[in-house]
TrEMBL record:
Belongs to the GST superfamily. PROSITE patterns: GST_CTER. InterPro entries: Glutathione-S-Trfase_C-like (IPR010987), Glutathione-S-Trfase_C_sf (IPR036282), GST_C (IPR004046). Keywords: Membrane, Transmembrane, Transmembrane helix. GO terms for cellular component: mitochondrial outer membrane. This is GST C-terminal domain-containing protein. It comes from Timema douglasi (Walking stick).
Length: 233
């Protein structure tokens, strides 16, 4: 094997305490039900504010409609595939149970609380860093796998329109600063889909006409806004 200059995402050379912290945070992030948060935000728009691409209104309607039809599609498959009927019907029942839970506002608030508890722990960890560690990331001076998982979570929440709910106004100032720093990283800019790529993906989706019209309108607003912003600089 040959040596690589790329920093390890799991810092094996920084001691067991750092490794344990990285692992604990990573596990906590992976336990968060991203799918439930996503669909729940579609069903309870009162919790969201200023969603971003790709989770704009036409896409939210499309994904929500697809989620609602999953159970029906599974039951149709069960009727046409007798050998897998029992398994498919069980999956359909599970889908109905999950959807019913997501439609319940109080149940969705429990999911949001689960996220909030994890982010509170992140805020506490970030707040403990002294001034001489201002450039440190979540667990150490390196950007680790825990930071990767946290970035994915924060970006999903922000795009769903839940940033204000979790770290808006004076809530979690250290987390807000952390997310801002992450967005300035070259690796983030190269990895996260650009506005134009998101729009391209939307155009490629097989959507009903009324959704297509909505996307076209948004495309002109977004692209036009970016163009005007650049022209005014």
């Amino acid at each position: 094997m040959y040596e690589c200059d790329t920093p390890r995402l799991i810092p094996l050379d920084l001691g067991p305490e750092v490794r344990q912290k990285v692992t604990q945070f990573r596990n906590a992030f992976e336990l968060i039900p991203a799918g439930a948060i996503t669909m729940g935000s579609f069903l309870h728009p009162e919790f969201i504010q200023s969603p971003r691409l790709p989770f704009i209104q036409p896409v939210r309607r499309l994904l929500l409609a697809a989620e609602k039809s999953n159970s029906r599609n599974l039951r149709e498959l069960a009727e046409n595939n007798p050998e897998a009927r029992e398994i498919l019907l069980r999956k359909a029942e599970n889908q109905d149970t999950k959807h019913a839970a997501l439609e319940n506002k109080e149940e969705f608030k429990k999911v949001l609380h689960q996220v909030d508890v994890v982010l509170d722990n992140v805020e506490k960890e970030l707040s403990l860093q002294s001034e001489d560690k201002a450039n440190h990331w979540l667990c150490c001076e390196r950007f680790t796998v825990a930071d990767v998982s946290l970035t994915i979570l924060l970006d999903r929440l922000a795009r769903l329109g839940l940033a204000t709910y979790f770290w808006g106004a004076d809530k979690k100032p250290y987390l807000k600063q952390y997310y801002h720093r992450v967005q300035l990283r070259d690796s983030y800019k190269k990895t996260v889909p650009s506005t134009l790529l998101n729009l391209k993906m939307l155009f490629m989706m097989k959507t009903p006409l009324y959704i297509g019209i909505g996307v076209v309108t948004i495309a002109f607003v977004v692209v036009g806004g970016v163009f005007l912003f650049k022209k005014s600089k």
